[in-house]
């Protein structure tokens, strides 16, 4: 996917429809995935060095909630809130969910997103750069990571997740998986 293409946006009606949903199941799922990523990519958060205890506010601007991720080595955590109001964080990364997911999957270039203003970074920029570099090196695929968090159900969950991800990608244009590099 080219970072020069327009970033897909979640329709406002969809985002509005998500507002009444309880955050607890989403918070549990996000926390499980963050912990699974830390186990499966054990050096990733260590790569953050002095920034591993920072609190990163991930703010998908087209969804009615935000995430706070603390990649603390040995005990990472994630939480979900309705808004950033009153939350304590060191850095904020904001943009459409498609840009944020595409950045994790390596489908978009972070610098290009920043300079096109599709992505806004506030606070500790050095910590955000360290996080981006750690994510790039780990080559995260969110469907694989979410499936792995389910332990013995990982294999069937990954199969279902990949089908769902292809459908979401087709419907929305959002990069739901890491682009596969073909070696000759």
What does this structure look like?
This protein has 184 residues and is of the alpha+beta class. The chain has a single domain, classed as SCP2 sterol-binding domain (Nonspecific Lipid-transfer Protein, Chain A). It has 7 helices and 5 strands, in the order ααββββααβααα. The chain has helices at residues 12-18, 24-40, 97-104, 110-115, 125-138, 142-148, 154-172; strands spanning 56-60, 66-70, 77-81, 91-95, 120-123. α6 packs antiparallel against α7. The longest helix has 19 residues, at 154-172. It starts with 11 loop residues before the first helix and ends in a 12-residue tail after the last helix.
List keywords for this structure.
single chain, 184 residues, alpha+beta, 5-stranded mixed beta sheet
Quick take:
It contains seven helices and five strands; from the N terminus they run ααββββααβααα. It has helices at residues 12-18, 24-40, 97-104, 110-115, 125-138, 142-148, 154-172, and strands at residues 56-60, 66-70, 77-81, 91-95, 120-123.
Detail the topology: elements first, then pairings.
Blueprint: H1 12-18, H2 24-40, E1 56-60, E2 66-70, E3 77-81, E4 91-95, H3 97-104, H4 110-115, E5 120-123, H5 125-138, H6 142-148, H7 154-172
Parallel strand pairs: 1-4
Antiparallel strand pairs: 1-2, 2-3, 4-5
Helix pairs in contact: 2-6, 6-7
Q: Judging by the overall fold, what is the CATH architecture?
A: 2-Layer Sandwich
Largest sheet: 5 strands, mixed
Question: Structural class per helix/strand content?
Answer: alpha+beta
Helix content: 40-55%
Strand content: 5-15%
Helix and strand run: HHEEEEHHEHHH
